Amino acid sequence: MARRQWSSGGVAVAAVLAVMSVLCAGHPVVPGGHGGGFPLQPHFYDHSCPQMQAIVGAIVAKAHAEDPRMAASLLRMHFHDCFVQGCDASVLLDADGSGRFVTEKRSNPNKDSLRGFEVIDEIKAAIEHACPHVVSCADIVAVAARDSVVLTGGPGWEVPLGRRDSLTASLSGSNNLIPAPNDTLPTIIGKFANQGLDVVDLVALSGGHTIGDSRCVSFRQRLYGQNNNGQVDRTLNPAYAAELRGRCPRSGGDQNLFALDPISQFRFDNQYYHNILAMNGLLSSDEILLTQGRETMELVHLYAANQGLFFEHFAKSMVKMGNISPLTGSAGEIRMNCRRVNHF
């Protein structure tokens, strides 16, 4: 089996390879997070709520059948949750009326774009009916993301479980910690490194853009220049740029949606990397993987040539991302309603 051999700044990441060897050996047992060091592990609910994953899977499948965009939305939700305070379902919280925090739903990365909350609500209600006050919203989001990838043809993986839910949210964290479409490659690498993720994780997880959409406002500068001078980004295929300009004008149309991978928009595959090689990456943060770094460029070429390896690395990186600072043990709580804490 191919091994991951790249790291940020050319520094070997022996620890990542060690984790991979554990994952390849059998069920992943992931080190615990805050609150006592209890490990996350795939069989956490086997006795307390054995039907948990079946319930999540059934409702995600129904949502996907009704709206093919939902798979990408639920995957994105997991990313945006884990990059802020860890994988603790803070992204689901509405404003609580107490002024203790501002909901992350108002942040620049999430406002008018993050969706799927009603699907999580439906899952939570069904699980609370079957297993009251047992399963966390954070674990529901993690399993829903995995199921969304599988439903669209991507790889599966065992999701380590046992996360608990946060009592607060962070608007500033959401605004500052989530990689932005216009960030430079060093900035994006730094934001991943802050979460314990390396360059392999960055390029593999970016492959999640093989499904889903982006808004005109997120890539307009590539079509009309950073200073609105009308100059197309030199790393964007001119023919593709002309096509995009047809529905993404110089002003207005901010919310117009465009497929991140127009060739196979609803299929999880490695076409995303072929698009980048053809200078058809929609976002600047996609195309710079090819143009601004040797290690990232090598990985783009590798994943374009080997879908199986991309799937393998993506699954392992999702497990790794899902272990960013989870609340475990007595930390946090098991929310009854994913949109609010149990008690003010």
TrEMBL record:
| Main localization, broad class | secreted
- Residues recorded as binding Ca(2+) 2, renumbered to this chain, are 210, 261, 269
Q: What is this protein called?
A: Peroxidase
GO CC term, one of those recorded = extracellular region
Q: Which ranges carry the Plant heme peroxidase family profile domain?
A: 39-342
* Active-site residue numbers: 80 (proton acceptor)
Which SUPFAM superfamilies does its entry note?
Answer: Heme-dependent peroxidases
Q: What cofactor(s) does the depicted protein rely on?
A: Ca(2+); heme b
Determine the domain of life of the protein's source.
Eukaryota
EC number of this enzyme: 1.11.1.7
Q: Does the keyword rRNA processing apply?
A: no
